[in-house]
Amino acid sequence: MKKLYYGVAYYDEYMPYERLHEDIRLMKEAGINVVRIAESTWSTHEPQNGVFDFSSVDRVLDAMYEAGISVIVGTPTYAIPTWMVKEHPDVLATTKQGQGKYGARQIMDITHPVYLFYAERIIRKLIGRVSRHPAVIGYQVDNETKHYGTAGDNVQHRFIKHMRHKYGSIEALNDALGLDYWSNRINSWEDFPSVVGTINGSLGAEFERFQRQLVTEFLAWQVAIVNEYKGEGQFVTQNFDFEWRGYSFGVQPSVDHFAAAAPFDIAGVDIYHPSQDELTGIEISFGGDVTRSLKGSNYLVLETQAQAFPHWTPYPGQLRLLAFSHIASGANMVSYWHWHSIHNSFETYWKGLLSHDLQPNPVYNEAKTVGADFARLSNELVDLHKRNKVAMLVSNEALTAIEWFKFPDGSNYNDIVRWMYDELFRLNVECDMLSPYVTEQELERYDVIVVPGLYAASDSLLHMLNTYVEKGGHVVYSFKSGFASEAVKVRTTAQPGIIEKACGVNYQMFIQPKDVGLRGKQGYEVLSCEQSVSTWMELLTPISADVEVLATYQHPQWGNYAAITRNRYGKGTATYIGAKIAGDKLQLVLEQVLEQAGKISAEQRLPQGVTLKTSYNEAGQKVRFYLNYTAETQRVAYAGKDGLELLDKRTIGSGEQIVLKGWGFCIVKEA
Amino acid sequence: MKKLYYGVAYYDEYMPYERLHEDIRLMKEAGINVVRIAESTWSTHEPQNGVFDFSSVDRVLDAMYEAGISVIVGTPTYAIPTWMVKEHPDVLATTKQGQGKYGARQIMDITHPVYLFYAERIIRKLIGRVSRHPAVIGYQVDNETKHYGTAGDNVQHRFIKHMRHKYGSIEALNDALGLDYWSNRINSWEDFPSVVGTINGSLGAEFERFQRQLVTEFLAWQVAIVNEYKGEGQFVTQNFDFEWRGYSFGVQPSVDHFAAAAPFDIAGVDIYHPSQDELTGIEISFGGDVTRSLKGSNYLVLETQAQAFPHWTPYPGQLRLLAFSHIASGANMVSYWHWHSIHNSFETYWKGLLSHDLQPNPVYNEAKTVGADFARLSNELVDLHKRNKVAMLVSNEALTAIEWFKFPDGSNYNDIVRWMYDELFRLNVECDMLSPYVTEQELERYDVIVVPGLYAASDSLLHMLNTYVEKGGHVVYSFKSGFASEAVKVRTTAQPGIIEKACGVNYQMFIQPKDVGLRGKQGYEVLSCEQSVSTWMELLTPISADVEVLATYQHPQWGNYAAITRNRYGKGTATYIGAKIAGDKLQLVLEQVLEQAGKISAEQRLPQGVTLKTSYNEAGQKVRFYLNYTAETQRVAYAGKDGLELLDKRTIGSGEQIVLKGWGFCIVKEA
Amino acid sequence: MKKLYYGVAYYDEYMPYERLHEDIRLMKEAGINVVRIAESTWSTHEPQNGVFDFSSVDRVLDAMYEAGISVIVGTPTYAIPTWMVKEHPDVLATTKQGQGKYGARQIMDITHPVYLFYAERIIRKLIGRVSRHPAVIGYQVDNETKHYGTAGDNVQHRFIKHMRHKYGSIEALNDALGLDYWSNRINSWEDFPSVVGTINGSLGAEFERFQRQLVTEFLAWQVAIVNEYKGEGQFVTQNFDFEWRGYSFGVQPSVDHFAAAAPFDIAGVDIYHPSQDELTGIEISFGGDVTRSLKGSNYLVLETQAQAFPHWTPYPGQLRLLAFSHIASGANMVSYWHWHSIHNSFETYWKGLLSHDLQPNPVYNEAKTVGADFARLSNELVDLHKRNKVAMLVSNEALTAIEWFKFPDGSNYNDIVRWMYDELFRLNVECDMLSPYVTEQELERYDVIVVPGLYAASDSLLHMLNTYVEKGGHVVYSFKSGFASEAVKVRTTAQPGIIEKACGVNYQMFIQPKDVGLRGKQGYEVLSCEQSVSTWMELLTPISADVEVLATYQHPQWGNYAAITRNRYGKGTATYIGAKIAGDKLQLVLEQVLEQAGKISAEQRLPQGVTLKTSYNEAGQKVRFYLNYTAETQRVAYAGKDGLELLDKRTIGSGEQIVLKGWGFCIVKEA
């Protein structure tokens, strides 16, 4: 990219009265230099089957070009028009809950030829029309694409073929998935039942993997069409999103982000998060680390919140902090959903930069300072890159498997992911994200790999992790890792199976903890704590002389079993955490591993709520972001080489104290 | 009416053995002078298609007449017989949840010609048969009528025509309802989808208004039929009810009471409410105020609880208090559901005046005192009327709109209505109820109008309220008032839109409060309170020099914004309450407005739990009810002119102390 | 039976690799002498329609025989193969929720001829093949059989005929079930609607009784087929189970255990229960008492937990305690579900004796001690019988009726059953279970009958209970007893209806208690307690001079009513408990009745958590089990005649102190 982009989603089609030139005037004042259009307005662009009207696109492109604002054009395929559903009701996805009803977006069967026919036609019409327009810098295909639970007869039909292709014989299928159980055995391909009612977690997980594959294929199909039109310097992106808990929480269950990202030129994402007193910066960091890792490069925040919900209206200063937080994680664009608040329909209370009155307001006014600073610092802050030596390995397969076999307290995979990620964040240790399809070379770029709840994994991945340790790497596993095969078949050995070799412990029994604490062994007394174990615990027994038991359980019956262990294996270490321990205890365990690996230093020890993010610019200069996610003024000692604070253009000497106002931040570039 | 009626619902058809003469004997002892019959027993009266058997009606009419007990005959149309459903299964309403199942009452499609054909036939048969019977004083058509969610293809078909009629062009429809959003735009009437899956709040609210219209039409249709038979002096009524939260809570969402009441001679209602230690009298007062306002006259309590649920079994004294509470609100009839407890089926634990043993019991014995007093005081207490100068404006449209856009904490419209109503009640300020279709003259009968959450409203109504203030009226608005158009389109101006003119404040931003209090401005320190704001808050800014800021928010970030304001506009004032503040603080705000308007006086300041209701008899004499909704003895000073306590026939001097026993009451008529 | 059986469910079909001989080796080491096979593996045994493969059965039988391990063969009919559902989708039960989906077990219509045809064929094939095999000692037909909610058109059709047969005339039907209410009256058999939507509790209860009858018929049909093949000395059993609340809680709602047990040679059962610190022994005792009572004899625990859920992993010592607890209740077999933990599918976390690694582990090691002791003590502990003089009367009809008319706090029938049962258990008073179809002679075997919540009951049963008291028996009734007829028609007399005669009290009114306590009358001050009444209370009035009021209510309004009464009637007494009182108060009431009846003695007063179970061996010698369900060491005084502690072969003198370790037990046989 050439510059930082500051943008908004803009819907001329939703405007209650003619606003285009007034909106552009206000955008210019706020430093908005890119808008994102068209991804949800098919029914406006194709009011009747085969009748097209792109006048709103044309006029927005022309006006934006004139104003010097770039445009990202979306393919309008994620919300289908009424005429299509009236003509072909079965274009609506049939899910486990039955046939869908018209109304919401994202309700169609993404494999249905009727949908694909019409989608392809409008993509070609729209992108063919705009691709030469000088305002257009890139394309977004579809939006927050998922499979929408499509599971009708046609999808089942394809799934059976997929299973036959994958397993070859019916015998192999039954064996891998354990279908004998409860008489689910399929003895002939013709007998294959719809899986919507299955209780077999292995079969269910296979189907969900197949559904994710449908998303990957659908996106690649769209990209291939758009690529036919894409001009020099234009990009194609997708707006990925995350497990949604009212905000962007964790790994997306319905999409394999790593696989789906392959055909795109650049990764895009939306990130939403609590605000006001609940603002922590963690979701921005987590979402950024995932998205940056998809293409190993900078990424676009295609959507994030301006005012959004009433409880997300930012406090004064927060909007600025948020924008620079995204940059600190490696974003090259920060774009709000959306410019103006919607006056009807469904997301009326998901407010934009402008309220419903379409006039400047305190949040808009703060955006103006962001826009000005983005413009001023664009050269300094664009294309910043990371040199992380710590990575986290996340897995859709593990996620799905744990959905089928939830923890007794209802915790799921992302609870484990965030439990570990959040403590890394609090330690100011930045990380990249790896998929289960990582190669050995990719692994070896990192000194420490953190592995949360890798419940289902292939033998080869686990062997690779063993080798990684043997060669000098450090791995931290949580409980449940290594437990089952890719087909969610529990290993028939003592647990944790293959990784026992590197970890030097095993177990046969596991417990739902109640009134269980930790007792730190010699040198680890700091881990001792009552009532610090929840969700799950494994009764670990060391099996190698090189195992150090960091802590045992504090419990009248289970007190002889180890809870946390570290094994020296080859040139590296493998740490195994057998239970969900309290966050502060986990932090201590992680910190120690990082210290051993030399991946944490004094400068990362900052006041609570203050975060340090470090990047490198094109010239290789180190750029530090100090971000204060608290309402209080904070003081930190600058630990880098003498540098320049970029916002104030002020030199900062090594060791000099930096004062951060509440919800404030500063950016220091080493000379 | 000529007299007070004391009644019961009576079902000879449900009796486990021959009881008629014994029941009448017990009724006479209890002073029961009216029974309500037949509204739920179609399958007894028409055992087979076209075969009629009204013998139970005939014999009850004859026996009651002989005993001097009047009868209200219901049209038996709210519970359909099995033969109809076997012949025509599609007579069951298809709702958002799909096709209905036979079993409950109120499950049919009230627009279905099969149902209408059979309903008309039995109405004509039954009413034609009984209308000349001297026992019959009136008719109830159907019962607790609603639309039962009917939303099948036939209803959708009519709805489309209704939309075309209302909006004229497809363009106007799309604009008003904002259908462009998420590609919901309808570009041809043929494309109009079923709205059962819509996510568009404007379209959804239109459909619910249409469904309420179906109820209005259905009731008018029944009334027209019955009117063909109605004799001199007979009336036609309907049994309206309320939002049900296990008891009668607030405005009925599925019926526009004001519109539906038009064809009736007199309004009827059922009111149920918590009892024992939870008895407050508020539901009786609220339900009474609504129902009295429908026809601007006295009303019938067609159903209220005798023993009902186990937790509603009245304490000794409560049954009496309740009966006179209804009279104090303007009822001319108090009738229990029901005479006897049912031995089978569904409402077995909704107990009547008699328990399942059909013998006298303590509650029945207390009813005997009520019956005797009703008879004795009938001339004094019949046709009492109100001269209220305070009114509350309630709106089905606002209710539906807020259902579509619920408050973040789940609160809905009726929570706001009751929040304001309950404080008026506690201030002993009686009010009438107004609909959004009120005329200017009607408005001007009142000195103070309280307006809870008028979220969706026409421009004309809001302009009329501005004019009302300008001419000298006082309005108290809650937050959210004026926010959206009738079509639930948020106004494109600063909020609260049109009423900003009278209120002199506006806002662009709103918050979900957390740890927010009030800080009373000079002269209003009494409003200061920590943690007193919940549900919703608007960041108000005065825009007029005449605005007095009563309170600002107590919060580190939002402390500069006003929370409560009062504006002098023309000759009146408009008070705007921008947040859900604690009840006691709201009471202070209301009290002050009422004081300014001269609508509250010392006599309304009574011990907590003691309520004063004031009416006028035909002679224009003031009649005061002092009602003690506590278990303790209470003392109040009688503030009227010298008068007569009607129960004891004792004179009461002005200023004299009145002693009210726990759950007791007294009635004083000024001389 | 000849010996104690110690067993496991064994599924060669589910094994991830060849294990048979290794498994048998480990079983032998653990003293396993019986396995249970084949009840869930139809799709393995009949891979295609009409193609059979019993090789896994054959090889298991041969290998077990060789090892001296007996086998119980199940008919594999409770989980249907995919080919059947593909050929005949309507074989899946249609329930209130609609058509079923393939996947789980227990989803078919047990009345469907397609299912019955295939089920009969495989039963004959399998049982015909194995019945002469010397390893086979018996058969289990189906498993945990229920009706699975089957309620489709075919079942409705049969139900109508059943109703016509039962009631004869449509008039009688309408009268008994109260169908007039809400126009549900059926005036012609052709009009009979599907009852899936009924709101009539009487009709609904009739249908559920009919569904239970379907289970009885289905099981009898299977038994008849198996009996054709059953050899000398072989038995047929069924695996009954209980109301499931995450564990075996109470009376099974979907099966009439007493009726269904008739055709079986011996009753079998599965019992699961909380463990670790939540282990109380009550579920084992309750389930055992029910199952023992079905045939009046010893029974088989066909399934109980080994490791099962993470929170049920037994503490050291608990597995032993549990096994002997079953024996103490009269079991002749304790068999785990299951041998090995499952590696795929659904019950992966319902762990067996072996974990997924299929190796010895601490629980397995403890099982070895059980197996050894079972073998050693088999002659001493097999065929122990009870001589209980206390019984509890439980009723499916009352259970269903209370489901239709739940208590206001959501409590149901089994909450009342367990409320009473648990206090008997804590008093160390053992009881048998009686059904409503008990005969007068059977009743008279007992001195005390405890009757929880007998809400729906025939006149004849209640008269019989009156007679029982008159002749000298003692009955303790809870509230709600006697309230309604078998057809769930509330009695039209004062309550508790017919039993008023023996109880000497009646009531007309009942309350949902709030802040209500007890006030013990003279001599019963021990019952006084504030806030001790919950769920339900009846306002009792003594009507006989022989009534002793044990306690009245402590409440400002209801304080004059009796809460607990005892009446001397004839030669016996009837105690009536009108409210759900606190458990410790109930215990006092029960204890006093038992003392009067001479059915409790000093030896039953033991430290909390220590249980005494008493049986008799074939020689008539008394055998006492002292079971310590606490983690602490307990001391008890042995109260029997001089005897022999069977585990240690140590003599114990009368009065000698016995020391029980935490989760320990001892067994003393009188000399």
TrEMBL record, chains A, B, C:
<dbReference type="InterPro" id="IPR013738">
    <property type="entry name" value="Beta_galactosidase_Trimer"/>
</dbReference>
<keyword id="KW-0326">Glycosidase</keyword>
<dbReference type="Pfam" id="PF08532">
    <property type="entry name" value="Glyco_hydro_42M"/>
</dbReference>
<feature type="domain" description="Glycoside hydrolase family 42 N-terminal">
    <location>
        <begin position="10"/>
        <end position="375"/>
    </location>
</feature>
<dbReference type="InterPro" id="IPR017853">
    <property type="entry name" value="GH"/>
</dbReference>
<keyword id="KW-0378">Hydrolase</keyword>
<feature type="domain" description="Beta-galactosidase trimerisation">
    <location>
        <begin position="389"/>
        <end position="597"/>
    </location>
</feature>
<keyword id="KW-0479">Metal-binding</keyword>
<dbReference type="InterPro" id="IPR029062">
    <property type="entry name" value="Class_I_gatase-like"/>
</dbReference>
<dbReference type="Pfam" id="PF02449">
    <property type="entry name" value="Glyco_hydro_42"/>
</dbReference>
<dbReference type="InterPro" id="IPR003476">
    <property type="entry name" value="Glyco_hydro_42"/>
</dbReference>
<dbReference type="InterPro" id="IPR013529">
    <property type="entry name" value="Glyco_hydro_42_N"/>
</dbReference>
<keyword id="KW-0862">Zinc</keyword>
<protein>
    <recommendedName>
        <fullName>Beta-galactosidase</fullName>
        <ecNumber>3.2.1.23</ecNumber>
    </recommendedName>
</protein>
<comment type="similarity">
    <text>Belongs to the glycosyl hydrolase 42 family.</text>
</comment>
